[in-house]
Amino acid sequence: MAGFVFVPYSADGHVHPMLPVAAELVAAGEPVRMIAGARFAARIAGVGASAVPADRESEVWSPPRWGPGELARLARVRSGRAVALRALARRCAAEFRARRPAAVVVDPAVPAAAKAARRLGIPVVWFSPTHARSPRLAGTVLVNSLPELQPRRHRFGHRFHFVGPLLAPAQRCAPSLPGPLLLVSPGTVFARTATFFRSIVEEFADSEWTVRMATGHLAPAELGPLPDNVLARRWLPQRALLAETTVFLTHGGMNSVQEALAEAVPMLLAPRNREQRATARRLVGLELGARLRGSARQAAEQLAADPRTRSALEEVQVRIRRGDTARLAARTLVQAARGS
């Protein structure tokens, strides 16, 4: 047996946290293979791991609102996802039989990969990109999260290792943008309507704020003409821009949240699902952000000026910069593979 095989759910927020851990293992001389969609191949190779393309990849999408058209498309997405996951299970079984890795690292969203590994007697380590989910997960569980961001209703034992945030090295934007910067990003899964983005444009037009919006599934052209202080693109270099950001308007996905915490950026939270709402409640309770209710501009200005939020963010940022999370996660994986 040699090396490790990583099996994420094939979406940005699930693949990206695994990459720093894979890089640490490769640097320590451990072979690493990762089974994911073909669009991630370059990023996987970039950390020195071997990319194993999944046979099928489904669309990852959630509509901005519910109507007949969205429901029909969502049904197609879910059907395609089920087919893709069955194909992934077959690919995993073949990969595990051929490679006999020391351990398989599995996202809880793809449990069939864990089942295939256990049939062959290969150790399984769970890797949750957000919350620890259920305490019923057997064996070692790595969680890409600070422990205080977890919902308080669960109590987890020594098998659960909160090793986050697992972030890629930050790139810096240059030159600095004028005025306070509002960064708006709804994430790569949850679509937003043109109305959502236009309301922000209207509030911040002709203000001293610079606004950068990542529209994701929505074509920026649907927003119409934009004022000089607003730029909209489908994708923006979020991690780099956060180094310049004054307030971050986010859906509250764990990767986005922890990238903001690493840069001590206060968050204006507009969550879309139960997991994001749970994270948002923790952030508000810790005075690291506020829920978006009413005027985005008023809320952004209050957050930017709040000394308690600034102090709380700086305290978390110091802890994040002091930690060596990827190395800790890699060491835990090696110990789990050895049964120690």
Quick rundown:
The protein has 340 residues and is of the alpha/beta class. 41% of the residues lie in helices and 15% in strands. The strands form 2 sheets. The protein has a 7-stranded parallel β-sheet, with helices on both faces. A 6-stranded parallel β-sheet has the order 10-9-8-11-12-13, with helices on both faces.
Structural summary, described in words:
With 340 residues, this protein is α/β, with parallel strands linked by helices. It has two domains: 4-167 and 323-338, Rossmann fold; 181-322, Rossmann fold (3-Layer(aba) Sandwich), CATH 3.40.50. It contains twelve helices and 13 strands. Helix 3 (41-46) links the parallel strand 2 (32-36) and strand 3 (50-53). Helix 2 packs across helix 12 (325-338) and helix 4 runs parallel beside helix 5 (111-119). The model has no long low-confidence stretch (mean pLDDT 88).
List keywords for this structure.
2 domains, 340 residues, 12 helices, single chain, Rossmann fold, seven-stranded parallel beta sheet, alpha/beta, six-stranded parallel beta sheet, globular, 13 strands
Number of strand segments = 13
What name does the CATH topology of the largest domain carry? Rossmann fold
Percent helix: 40-55%
Q: List unreliable stretches of 5+ residues.
A: none
Q: What is the tally of helical segments?
A: 12
Average of the residue pLDDT scores: 88
The biggest beta sheet reads: 7 strands, parallel
CATH superfamily of the largest domain: Glycogen Phosphorylase B
Strand content: 15-25%
Distance between the termini: 16 Å
How many whole angstroms does the radius of gyration measure?
20 Å
CATH architecture assignment of the largest domain: 3-Layer(aba) Sandwich
Write down the domain tally: 2
In terms of structural class, how would the helical and strand content be classed? alpha/beta
The SSE order reads EHHEHEHEHEEEEHEEHEHEHEHHH
Gross geometry: globular
CATH class descriptor name of the largest domain:
Alpha Beta
- Tell me the strand order in the biggest sheet: 3-2-1-4-5-6-7
